[in-house]
Amino acid sequence: MKVTGIVASPRRIGNSDILVKETLKGLQEQGLEVSILRLRDFRIKYCNGCEKCVVQENPRCPIKDDVKFIYEQIMQSDGLVLGSPIYIHGIPGILKTLIDRIRPYVSKGESIEKKFSGFLFTHTFNSEFEYAYALPYLLFFSFYLNFQVSGILSVPSGSPGECLIDVENIRKVRVLSEKLFRNIIDPAGPVTDFQEKQETTGQETIICPGCHNLTFSMKQGKIICPVCKEEGILTGDSVDWQKKSQFSNLKETMNSRFQMIMESHLAFKTNFRTIIGAREEFKDKNIGIPIVGKDKPE
Ligand SMILES: Cc1cc2nc3c(=O)[nH]c(=O)nc-3n(C[C@H](O)[C@H](O)[C@H](O)COP(=O)(O)O)c2cc1C
After folding, report:
1. I need a labelling partner for 209 at 20 to 30 A (CA). Which of 24, 224, 272, 293 fits?
2. Above 90 in pLDDT, residue 58?
3. Which of 16, 40, 86 to mutate to test the pocket of ligand 1 (most atoms within 8 A of CB)?
């Protein structure tokens, strides 16, 4: 069984790099095949929005770079370890760029609940809210590629290698490694109890029991997880959740999202002439607004 570790930090021997390696060491010691992939070593170009990955008979991405190779590595893995620093409360641009290019590889939900991932976040400030906005991206990334989440660990550490000062961090990483191992070798077994106390503060924080997300929307008296659509009712300090599984809403969500994309393309086709005519007015040469940094008008 294979596990791929992905490091989203540009730093050599930085905190994410060290923690991903330590997680992989734990899995390797248990007999799993492991490898590490550092995003900084690859060419990852921006998505150009052409949508050839969704609207064609044979969906494909026309951009030539290393993204296909990276996804093939991921798809051939039974487990995934993702280590990312927090950059301005979110994920680094290189990781977002990779995630934007996910569409040709998005699962239709066929082999759901067989693969597992673990996330490691590193950040200077000691609070779980430091990674709250980054987490949904990794959850979506993981779910879209069919990986259930075994565990999430955040290690407050700012300078390169600072995570090694406290040996407790290594112990926590080994716990994550163990959780991943157990899920990978026994996919039908129980998945992590997501109601664990936050490691960073030791305080009780409301966490989505479906996917471990920390940021919520409120609608008609309900608290809703924007990632897995788990719903609950806020009662005093706690939430009475419906408690669905990580994937229970996923297939439905994927289908309805795909449906929406198709409807949007159909609307474009149906109204093609009108749209093309109306767009004319907005061409650079017609709009009468100087375009900064552009050499020739469309
Ligand atoms: C551009 C940039 C933005 C950052 N933004 C945050 C932030 O919003 N919150 C935080 O706690 N740390 C922030 N940091 C600190 C890094 O998360 C921290 O140095 C981390 O240890 C980097 O992990 P690495 O060694 O794996 O690269 C930022 C660092 C950089 C370079």
Report:
1. 24
2. no
3. 86
